Amino acid sequence: MKTALIFGGTRFFGKHLVEKLLADGVTVTVATRGQTEDGFGDRVERLTLDRLNRDSLSSALEGKSYDVVFDQICYGPDDAQNAVDVLTGKVGRYVFTSTMAVYDPNGETHAESDFDPYRHEIQYGPYTNFSYADGKRHAEGVFFQKADFPVVAIRIPIVVGLDDYTRRLHFHVEHVQEEKPFWMPNLDASMGYITSEEAGKFIAWCGTVEQPGPYNGAADGTISLRDLLSLIEETVGKQALVAEGAEASPYGVPASWLLNTDKAKFAGYEFTNLNDWLPQLVREIADGK
């Protein structure tokens, strides 16, 4: 990989993806609407476009080609189809950031085969017509069934980090600190996580993995929501107030929601272990970093 185009590289794990590619000597082009300062200076090239507008996409990419395109901001089938149509003949590989949400939170540990995008029945429409999970399912279906270029779909769990603009882990730390009640329906449910830094590195790796297709990616290890709250309680010195009817936790899943990452490991990727970094991350959030 010598050249890469990134849709969505100006914040969160997209910035870590850019940094990893630059460190690997890749010539990176960041495509954005031009509304967010990215901090990369003259280390990257830039395209100004609207990812959700087919004409804008086509005009900006006229006459351009890339070894790999990384798409962080596709949420539905119409936008996936636009990318397929515009980039045919212009890209060597397409890496689509999908989600763990293509699998239902049903208590199972999901392997990639649990959702088959090659046979998924595609429904077209703007991403606003679908739930987040269904939008990503249909987008995967479009990429794998309609594209004439190789596609990798990355299915990652909840991404955490000090730079998490969604502040989902922050929600829990701050609610415990401030003694505000919240609600989780199943404290014994376990979930997987990945840091924003590792998410960026894993996505970059998927640009070079030999075999295309879907890949799960998550840090090794799991933690139940009950144990996560215990970690937060120990860190901040206060008790979590879990109360039915209170504000809903963004981690309020009905059952365990886990990923089997054997496929990526077999292909050579080594994941971190969440027990090595989660306590420190909780401490740093509690300290207001």
UniProtKB/TrEMBL annotation:
GO terms for cellular component: cytoplasm. GO terms for molecular function: aldehyde dehydrogenase (NAD+) activity. Residues 4-166 form the NAD-dependent epimerase/dehydratase domain. InterPro entries: Epimerase_deHydtase (IPR001509), NAD(P)-bd_dom_sf (IPR036291), NAD(P)-dependent_oxidoreduct (IPR051783). Signal peptide: none annotated. This is NAD-dependent epimerase/dehydratase domain-containing protein. It comes from Tumebacillus flagellatus.
